[in-house]
Design goal:
Strand content: 15-25%
Helix content: 25-40%
Oligomer: single chain
Distance between the termini: 76 Å
Mean pLDDT: 82
Amino acid sequence: MVRHELGATRRFGWYFLDDYAEWLGQREEQIADILALTPDETPDGRLQLGVVIAESKYIDYASLAAKRKESQKQLRDTVRRINDAIFGDPQRLDRDLWLSRFSDLMLNGVQYPANSPIDLAAWRRAVRCGECGIHLRGYSHVFVSGPSDAPECSDFVTVAESENSWQEIFSRARLRELVLSYAKDANPTPIRRANAGEDIWKEQAYRRPSDRIQIVHRRKTDDESGTGGDAPSAGHTQGSQPIPFKPARVSPPATVQAPIPIPQVTPSGAWPWPQVGQLIARYQGGSEDGAGDEEWMRQVESKCKGALQQFQLQSKLLTKALTPNAALLKFQGSANLTVEQVLKRRSEFLTTHALNVISVRAEPGVVAIAIARPNRRVLHLPDVWKQWNPNCTQGNHDLLIAVREEDSSPLFLSPKSNAPHTLIAGSTGSGKSVLMQNIILGIACTNTTEQAKIVLIDPKLGVDYFAFEGLPHLQGGIIDAQDNAILTLNELVGEMNRRYTVLKENKVSNIFDLNRKPNPTEHLPFLWVIHDEFAEWMMTPEYSDAVADVVGRLGVKARAAGISLVFAAQRPDANVMPMQLRANLGNRLVLRVDGEGTSEIALGEKGAERLLGKGHLAAKLEGESEIVFAQVPFVETDFLVQMVAKLKETT
């Protein structure tokens, strides 16, 4: 493998490092196995030396976890010892010693025919004097020989805390390929490349050793003894300019997930009113990820893989993606990498490796780890809406509320496709009010007043909704009195029963079919009932009974009647959110909450307490197989005011 990597036609010297354990200052069982040296000359006459250190284990699958750790440590200790001596900064006193050793090893181990034009003496002199570029790499090779039913365990990882060092693990099937390649004297690099999922062998980087330290002995002169004069300096470091070299270009170690393309909006035809599409199209704000963000992503990838290796967990990276909130890294799952194993190490990820793990999710054959960004990217509502093409012909019931972290695709809330009723939970600063504004604005901008109506109840006297005053879709304005709210909720039940009568008269099963019918007796607008901070009034027995009764009666029949409830609270605790009410609010949009208990009530499981706030969302929607993590776009006040003003002009 090493011979084909550096060039099968080159001359090599092979050395068992156990014979040189004293040089490394370690016992034989603590160092790598083989040192390979191969001199080379570039077309322009520059001399250079390839150095590869290899450590190998031929093992049974049962001992893989322990042996891969042992092999990494042996390689790390050996490579660091040699690398620090030759390239160390600050320069090492044993730099010349190691270069001389390499020079002597070349003489003893690299065989050239007598008629060869190679001037080995000149080469050795160049190595000894530090005038020869050196390419140094290390490999930990672990070959799994059995049993025959052992699972696929091939892996390729960077060895932590060791420069230019990798561990290659070959399963029984991969090992068979290598042996057959060896038997045919074929190049095994394609097998290694397939195992790694990248190509680190494309180019080799040669660099000159660190500058030599010269110690100048200071002698006293006659002038210094009595007559004065300038004394020479006690010592100085003398060096030369490094030789130019072409740095290795390493391919990305994993597939970078590109966002799923979304059809661009057509402002003139996608929205009920041209003014809405024009205002969105004219928006010039927004932000994009920069080079610094990409560099942070690369650092996090390396840190995370190194952390998993130190924890003796598999670290084969499959895909990576930079989301507005996090680096999303997907590793190949196995018995040696599970969600539970990563969660147990969450504190160590943070304290030892400075990685704030937001979530760890299981997918088929995959463990997905999300690591928080220090500088999050703000999504702006108009930018997100430019990629939205709502179908407003018969009214729109699919509201774009966020952007998925998984693939940057839009996340929709739909009382038609999902559950009819929704619970929103989030503490102060979580972005709950912004999410509510998204929902209200989404309804108003994609529906005429004949297609949708909004009932807005807010115990906080509407302080978060002043911008919506006068919105034509609001039915009865902003309701901020408890008595009016109870009256409105009770009227909903009567309206639902009336709507069922209309459906019966028109021989249709739901409001959607009714409004598509050519000549119905009545067109019914979809009714959105949005109740913010409902927990505040739920402490009042009268109000609690009224809400529980209304939600219980609407729970089964509301979807067909075209009525959707959206209830929001900071802390939907058990005492303000009875089991019956919880069961009927099937969609859960949960932002950051105060603790695990609130997360379990609102989301059905722990995890929402670790969200980052400011619109970072965990959504459990009916029809989705698992929790969806997403980012709610920010609504700027100026844009909100302008949009509401445009909507007022349409009436």
